[in-house]
């Protein structure tokens, strides 16, 4: 494990490493309305202000190599050019406040996103058109992921379900996990297209298999676990964060065993994980740090 100190008060929320080995690692400095960049070779930190009122939540690296931000404060999708630092914004249509959360690109290069106020939507970067839909069960849309076959699923924290989006019509179809009131928070697809879900309320990690339409679930170790984030690495090992244990947890679906990596700081509160080959990254919102577990 290695830690990277960030400016005090940054409150990093999401993290997105460039896929290239040794490339920069981007993070949302939610407490300072900025997008951050860490050079993992020397620890150098740079923050780019996103504008007055910014409160960035999610960040992902797009197929163009640029960081794309879901900014709940600006109610807009934001792209930052990684070379020039030029900022471009796509405000959501109408007057609806979505409370933007997370984004993913489909295989056609369109960006899909969630809003906790009860919305999900789509941005076509080639035309600049933004579509916004009300989620079928109201508030809660949170994590979102694209499978290797190109399907898009999101999780609804308040709605206690996941949903599959029809990419042509935009219609979202809810899918209920077997555990009631589980608090499905984030989702990530593995190589076979199974949807892994971090269940905040139940303290479980669950997996939905779209081929068989079946579920499996496992309780995180310890008492009163709180599973916040989920990310699946290139070996199909499942990484999660547990707020109660103050740790990053790795789950091996083959052996059905957990391994824990506690933080060196109290109340680290890793809100999101992502990674690249050999590296699992987390944003320690409670400690103003990024953490990487190299494996």
What this model shows, in words?
With 295 residues, the chain is mainly beta. It is 0% helix and 52% strand. The protein is built from no helices and 28 strands. It has strands at 2-5, 12-17, 25-29, 34-38, 45-49, 56-61, 67-71, 76-80, 87-91, 100-105, 111-115, 119-124, 129-134, 141-146, 152-156, 161-165, 172-175, 184-189, 195-199, 204-209, 214-219, 227-232, 238-242, 247-252, 257-262, 270-276, 279-284, 289-294. The chain has a 4-stranded antiparallel beta sheet, with no helix packed on it. Strands 2-3-4-5 form a 4-stranded antiparallel beta sheet, with no helix packed on it. Strands 6-7-8-9 form a 4-stranded antiparallel beta sheet, with no helix packed on it.
The percent range for strand residues is over 45%
- Low-pLDDT segments: none
Helix count, DSSP H or I runs of 4 or more residues: 0
Q: Helix share of residues?
A: under 10%
Keyphrases for this structure?
single chain; 295 residues; mainly beta; 4-stranded antiparallel sheet; 28 strands; globular
Give the SSE map.
Layout: E1 2-5, E2 12-17, E3 25-29, E4 34-38, E5 45-49, E6 56-61, E7 67-71, E8 76-80, E9 87-91, E10 100-105, E11 111-115, E12 119-124, E13 129-134, E14 141-146, E15 152-156, E16 161-165, E17 172-175, E18 184-189, E19 195-199, E20 204-209, E21 214-219, E22 227-232, E23 238-242, E24 247-252, E25 257-262, E26 270-276, E27 279-284, E28 289-294
Antiparallel strand pairs: 1-28, 2-3, 3-4, 4-5, 6-7, 7-8, 8-9, 10-11, 11-12, 12-13, 14-15, 15-16, 16-17, 18-19, 19-20, 20-21, 22-23, 23-24, 24-25, 26-27, 27-28
